[in-house]
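Good morning C.,

I know you're traveling, so I'll keep this short. The sequence:
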Amino acid sequence: MTTLDRLELGKSGRLIRLEGERALCRRLMELGLLPGCIVRLIRRAKLGGVLELEVRSCRLTIRSSEANLLFVEPS
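The tokens, ready to paste straight into the viewer:
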């Protein structure tokens, strides 16, 4: 198990758990980041620490600090 920010580019993983403040976890869950879903890391921004993800055929961006709170099992 690793955090989402440490996943290799183009690789997928199953989301195991979310950590952090309740409001942040709720916002991430509203974006579709629910335990059990498959997440693929599409791209990292060179500056600013932003990650582009693919979740359920949709793309979204989150901060690296938020991705550090998402634990995935690489597949």
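Safe travels,
E.
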